[in-house]
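quick one, 125 residues, struct below
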Amino acid sequence: MSLRPPRISQGLFVRAMKRTRGCAKYDGDVAMSIELEIEGVSDRAVTEAIRKRVRLLRHHPDPEDWRVRLVPSESEAEWDLGIRTASGWHVASFTAPAQRLADIVEQRLRAQLAVTAGDASAGGT
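---
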């Protein structure tokens, strides 16, 4: 995943970025903390849908801090989704219309949660 500077078009930044970080308590367990960074999505409804899905996933009790980055891809794929967990960065590149981004981000996060939970249970036995 690239940490490149924002692309400039006619002297204007064409990157929309908002970071969200949160942690809450649910039934005595501390919910996971997820820092979310979204770049290159100009439709506010899409970015809000992504944030909402990520907030719902924070209800999983997990002591880890995760970082999630959705950025325009530099390769032939349209998007890069990076998820940083305790085990490192997990990056996926994919092509999808902006309207599907919330679904895809949620699916990838759920898949990573399942892997992390499986690793934790395997390590505990």
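The first strand starts at residue 8 and ends at 9.
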